[in-house]
């Protein structure tokens, strides 16, 4: 009986938690208006997870814990769409839109209402909800048959697993990757020696169609839903009504939409967003104009390929033409050799551009890019300039194909073009350019965070053969540093101090700094939290590593391969001999913390200029003492630490009666 009672209580709480978490998630991911701290969300999520672990029978299919699919997929099952996913006819100027308007007037009469929406540059999906529950997500494919990507789509937080009403409907929309996430992802990939994604659309497609749902979950995809194709019981008469209803159901729709009575008003909207497009956080490639009333849509009808009641106005691509002067090759820390185009300076979408990415050697061949060509440049994701194509008409007959380098520009060893890679690679483990890049990574902020060790000093350390691998950093002497160009005694001393201080970094910084393929800062933290010492990680079997939430097979394999290398084991031994810490001392799990600290289990915000602490260090120390350091003041904040010139956070804290500490009181408390 007791068990029954417990079970019933648990069941009630699980329902409550799912409702709460769904609400917070909707506020955060769909409305972009969070109402609680992340930590609060995490707490509730953990509570739900625990209950579900204790009572597996209570795991609901649409519980937020069920978003991350754990198993690797073999492939995607093909699914036929109930209703084909059509494409749209295009217009490229006002004339094109006027012609569209005229055709429609002939088909449906003069009282047409146009509904305008942004044309999101991503990939189309169709989502089926049965009685309010997400049951299937399928890509567009060829329009008739697409791929079942339900597991991956479930990991996208702005896609609700459960609607606010138990309706049976099918909705369609565009999955996209925000510009900022695209840039961050490519930076990450470059660091890992992987080929860049050319634009956010390709990145979104690659992510959605990844066979490891964990990869999809780890990248930041989002969605805008733009049409309802099966309504169930709902009575809806127009596109604008459909979108409002979808929003009401909890689906994410784009708010920048409007209804107009004439094509001239439509044109004003088009021009407005043509201006605004670079300021939006996601890419759009045009405007979609739809007849608003469904009855009139039916009257207009369809061609085989596209509806007659809608058209896509495509923005002109912002491209500039300039001359390619040279191709520069640089070697990354994993040996990937990447080409950059050096061009005559040219204006492009608001900035002067003279370097542009060529991505990889295959792309140069494919686009037949040659020195002295006139080339078109464009900004991928509106941000990173790239060469898109050659103006072949202006190419002189004497032009000769570009010769792909066969030797590493840094160490002259032969370059390899591995079968499964798009990039050229220098395989020489002793290549100085790679070693230099590895060192730059090792000292960088998220790795060992050694202040004052800039690229110029690193280059000199290599040239003078004072450093060959990262362990040599810990052997440097003041005398050696003083032989470098432009380094004063004071800065040399500071540098030595910074190097010394880095020895006590927690294991995750070192693990990330080692630059193991696929091991980013987050994976390094997860691995360190789990294994706590380098030694234990070294002995961990692949299956064990892979079982960590957030770590996939690819990372696990890479970690095992790294520790199999004799050179890697030697390096770690050398680091240990120099006194570099190889254990995890980071934000320990709460149970192991000192509960008597005033910061234990407190939510703390830091603001203003600090004189005695570096902000990141302070954050780490407080976290070690059990604090949860967050970025914004709310009623839940327990302490605000305010340095000089604290602004709005300080006034808000006072308003909410949150205790405010200055640096003095802080130093007294943590004994510095
Ligand atoms: S409506 C019958 N609305 O553009 C097709 N499409 O070129 C109805 N797209 O395949 C599509 N944003 O992937 C529509 N607000 C929007 C859109 C949009 C992006 C994409 C969609 C479609 C392609 C057509």
Backbone structural class:
alpha+beta
Overall radius of gyration: 29 Å
Domains, number: 6
At CATH level 2, the architecture of the largest domain is 2-Layer Sandwich
Q: Give the CATH H-level superfamily of the largest domain.
A: DNA ligase/mRNA capping enzyme
For the record, what CATH class of the largest domain applies?
A: Alpha Beta
Reported for the largest beta sheet, the result is: 7 strands, antiparallel
Q: Give the low-pLDDT segments.
A: none
The beta-strand count equals 22
Shape field? globular
Distance between the termini: 56 Å
**Hetero groups:** 2-(butylsulfanyl)adenosine
Mean pLDDT: 90
Helix-residue proportion: 25-40%
Percentage beta strand: 15-25%
How would you characterize this protein structure?
This protein is of the alpha+beta class and 672 residues long. It folds into 6 domains: 5-67, Helix Hairpins (Orthogonal Bundle); 89-185 and 197-314, D-amino Acid Aminotransferase, Chain A, domain 1 (2-Layer Sandwich); 320-405, Nucleic acid-binding proteins (OB fold (Dihydrolipoamide Acetyltransferase, E2P), Beta Barrel); 432-502, 5' to 3' exonuclease, C-terminal subdomain (DNA polymerase, domain 1), CATH 1.10.150.20; 507-577, DNA polymerase, domain 1 (Orthogonal Bundle), CATH 1.10.150; 590-669, BRCT domain (Rossmann fold, 3-Layer(aba) Sandwich). It contains 24 helices and 22 strands. Strands 12, 13, 14, 15, 16, 17 and 18 form a 7-stranded antiparallel β-sheet that branches. Strand 12 (319-331) and strand 13 form a beta hairpin. Helix 1 runs antiparallel to helix 2 (38-54), helix 12 packs across helix 13 and helix 16 (507-513) crosses helix 17 (521-531). The longest helix is centred in the first third of the chain and has 29 residues, at 2-30. The relative contact order is 0.07. The structure holds 2-(butylsulfanyl)adenosine. Residues 86-88, 117, 119-120, 124, 174, 226-227, 288, 307, 312 line the site of 2-(butylsulfanyl)adenosine.
